[in-house]
Design brief:
Four copies of one chain form a homotetramer. By secondary structure, chain A is an alpha+beta fold. The first copy, chain A, contains nine helices and eleven strands. Chains A, B, C, D: It comes from Methylobacterium goesingense.
């Protein structure tokens, strides 16, 4: 991967070649940015690309939208959702003259369909601005995959947790944790499974290094097993066995730290930091 | 319903007639208790009935078990559970020579099957004692339905809740609450639905006036709607929308007060009093 | 104590005699109210007295203020506070032409001095209205002490607590609780001391049956002793020994329920209901 | 400061000279350890010193105790405490024949006097072992100040905090925090003052880089100022103004993370990690 310094020093042609994929079908955007080098940060480079896009002639910007590929990565949709999505996007292309563009990595299944339905109802001018915003979000993620350097744009979020046992005042190790996306009242999808370590945390974030899809989630802790092992004499079924923390993510680039602070008879959670 | 005083003063024959249903097929139990009148409390009357039963000849006590009807009120079981239960109880009768006796009101669906399977594996002497204990639990409930007076036996439990909004320091009114029995990871059954009143409580307990069946439960609060209405500017989906408190009941005669103390970004619960 | 019914039926003269003390030096107020009988509630009677006062000629209302006695019940002030209060009230009488009137039962020591200083700085018209409001607050309390009946005015508040042990999921009995008024960083005054009962509550509210003086308070729980007795093996000094909940009361007629929900390593509180 | 590697390679004489101060008056301890080089960790070096001390002839070990200087760093004691401490240590020397030895950095004022009184009452054999343990604790701290390398002995603890606002789900910046040692009901001593940063934490731990003296502490947060600024319309005095978390430290080498999770009407704390 080239560094930002490499790009700052590269021949104009090489710079454009290296960044061509950021805005597919709009090579002049990279060319305009090339002229503004050097950049102190990757954020600065992204801003130059955005400004170049915004300064481009209307026809060029429209062409960028028109030439966007269809949303990819949708195999996670159910058959019914797929059919609904296909119908919505067909109506969308009909209505606006360009395909439905969305940074799909930032959306859970329900949010994806909701966004599509909502945008189908918006007016053409607003919608064109929204589509271009999404192009820019996709571009930011692509840029981060292509270049490394100081001041990277914030394109990833995180879901993390830790478990604290208030009977002992110690982190709870060995607690099985599962993160599910809450697709509907009848369907949840397992996203990650982990076990807390000696520090009561999972070795890696449950979601990290990518945007956190906008969705409701369900974070489940087998805390009953922990207390069965450490606190003999609890009734069966115990008051707390599987604790389920349901929370929504609206900011895919945010950090959602969702701890569980528990005794056998009480617990609390909060959005932590 | 006769009062305890009425029973204390009744002719022996009337006393026996009034209480005959407490231990069906064992009229001599009520007769023996009649001789020990007066009773200061219904608890005292129940204790006398229990002692009379325990003092009865072995054959009579065995007959009491043998003549118990099959467990009733099992229409809430699924077809598969019913089949499993029928198989277990048939094996049980075979093994022990009397039908499977259980105070079914005290057991959720999963607990019912678990109890049956566990007791099928116990030794005959232990099992006979367990069966007699269950007869006594059933008798206690029947007695409470037949007599009223001081010192009633504790045969009912309670599930209650209240919702507190820590942004305003006030009870949260108008919050929709649902109590579900957690039958399995794929089936929950709605037990009660209510809305919190001005005091953040439900007008009546979610379960009350009867034993609380041994089971895991899921208490769900539409707290997101409350904060949408009172706290504009929250993201969508909100961090908290439906909060789900999963807790187990092991003591059917206990009071499970399970409050929700919440802000838009945090909540806690505990077994309260 | 006469009932509201008695007063509704009493001779006019007796009604006026009975309620004369409510507005000392303003007998015509009670006379005007007498003509509006009967009253369905004591609140209604109070409203009639208030309206009669407000309808009285200006001179009469001013006389009511002028003839008010000096604030009583101030022996709780320190010598320095007394001196400061005397200076402030002297300046007040000078400035406004009537004595400083305040329902002192509604104010802690610091709040009393703060109120006096603040009101000394207000303009005469506002201050006259404020003084009359205080006369009405005093009148409401007096009326509640003189009559009993339906619809009593709300003139009392409450401070209460309960202690919950989240290790056992049970109320914590036998916990010594002390309520202190926080007068300054160097002085607190013990207001009430109690021990929690089997239900984790105190037998009576820590403050009740009277207004809760506006003040910061410090509610201290000897929770360390509880956990020493129930949870062997804690270090010494324990993480939690005396828990101190500092909270402010701004609404003397409010109910401040301030619970302690604790394990040996965690606790929480909130304004409950 | 020499590195562990330097010491591993140093001439025996230089090694002994470098570590002489670890056990003053017992040069043979360092000599015995020198013969066991090289050490992979500073922990390993400390263990070798300890074993050398334990293997030394009884007279030498006693001499080590006898030659210890009086406890230093006691100027923080009040006059009365000083007098009490002087009396206790004089009695101690009388009784045991060597001065009272204690790693004073690990003890708050009350704990220091309590330890002295308790040890005065112990039997000579136990007390000699206790004194030697304290010599080793002092030695560990000295060693850490003299050498640096892998596997440092754990001789420091930490008190830290963070403040979370549950109304916004964000860290609370700009909150003034004070840590006081709770010497007695009438005396607290300010240990540290800090302000929370954008992450709701203090830039440095409130205590760190040294043992945390055994003592009760009071951690005070001016949370009322935070909510006055962010949450208009709260009453005055507010329900929460200064929150005071009183907690005890029994493990001077432990990490005491004591967060405040608060709304204007509720808060919680726990020993975190």
């Amino acid at each position: 991967m080239p560094s930002l310094d490499d790009l700052n020093r590269a021949a104009r042609k090489d710079f454009v070649a290296a960044l061509g994929a950021v805005f597919a079908h709009a090579p002049r955007v990279a060319e305009a940015a090339a002229a503004r080098r050097p950049f102190a940060t990757v954020e600065g480079l992204l801003a130059a690309l955005r400004e170049a896009l915004e300064a481009a002639p209307d026809a060029e910007r429209r062409a960028l939208l028109t030439n966007q590929p269809e949303c990819a990565g949708l195999d996670r949709l159910s058959e019914a959702e797929h059919a609904r999505f296909a119908a919505l996007t067909a109506a969308y292309t009909d209505r606006f003259g360009f395909p439905f563009i969305l940074c799909v990595q930032r959306h859970g299944r329900a949010a994806l369909l909701r966004a599509c339905a909502a945008r189908l109802a918006s007016d053409p001018e607003t919608e064109r601005a929204t589509a271009q915003d999404e192009v820019l979000r996709i571009a930011a993620i692509r840029l981060c995959a292509l270049v490394e350097g100081a001041g990277m744009p914030r394109t990833t979020g995180r879901i993390s947790t830790h478990v604290l046992d208030t009977v002992t005042g110690r982190p709870a190790p060995g607690v099985e944790v599962e993160l599910h996306e809450w697709v509907s009242d009848t369907e949840t999808v397992l996203i990650a499974r982990a076990e807390t370590n000696a520090d009561g945390r999972t070795d890696a974030p449950l979601v990290g290094g990518r945007p956190v899809p906008i969705a409701p989630y369900d974070l489940r802790f087998r805390i009953g097993d922990h207390f069965r092992a450490t606190h003999p004499g609890l009734p069966e079924p115990p008051f707390l066995d599987i604790v389920s923390l349901r929370f929504g993510v609206a900011d895919p680039e945010g950090h959602y730290h969702v701890p569980l602070v528990a005794s056998p008879w009480s617990y609390q959670t909060y959005r932590g930091s």
